[in-house]
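Let's practice the habit of predicting before peeking. Look at the sequence and jot down your guess about where helices and strands might fall. Then scroll down.
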Amino acid sequence: SRGETNEYKVHFRNRRCCSWLVSGGANDIFGSIFMILSTTFSWFAQAFIAIVFSFLLLFNKKQVVRETKSLLKAYLPEKDYEKTRHVLKLIIRIFTSYVGGTCLECLILASLVTAGSLIMKIPYAFLIGLVVGIGALVPMFGALVAALLCTFFIAITSPVQGFTFIVMFICIQQVEGNFIYPHVVGKSVGFPPMYIIVAITIGANVAGIIGIIIFIPICSCIYQLVSEDVLTRLQKVKEVSD
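Done guessing? Here is the structure:
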């Protein structure tokens, strides 16, 4: 009969659900969720510690610089001391310029997204621009993740506007990723734009998100030092040949 058929279907669904729970399907889902949450919390905790440590160094900059100079001068020969001092000055200058260039690039991207959202009449335009700008602190991929998150919340209100926003963002991202970011950040650290992508790729493979963030200034420092060494060697070769 029809009632027996419905009862059989309900019983069959209950059995499938129980077998899925017993087989560990629920554990896999909860395990994945726990892993994602723990990884996210760990990343935010590390970022918070790094920011606090940076502020401590900033507020005690004079003392740190004075003590570092004293240690280097006490334990290094004069020639090595001057070289080490030059390298440290180069690292500080490049990292400072990198932070400034990254903040400028985030501001540009946030302004473009906000302006585009206002033109397309997408809701929460200023909030969307702020979220995408903060996400852009992670080079290349951070802004995309932030945009996908914004798309999800916009789509809850209006799927059409959510689709419009992600299409608009992809267009802006292409211009920003290929032209604005390499030139703004590359010029700020004295690093050719064509090497920016190489540095990001190496950093992602070596240290994940942290590597993506810090490998641009690290590779820029190496590039500057190698360039200086090449010029010095060429100058010596020229003097010998003359």
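How did you do? Residues 1-6 have pLDDT under 50 and may be disordered.
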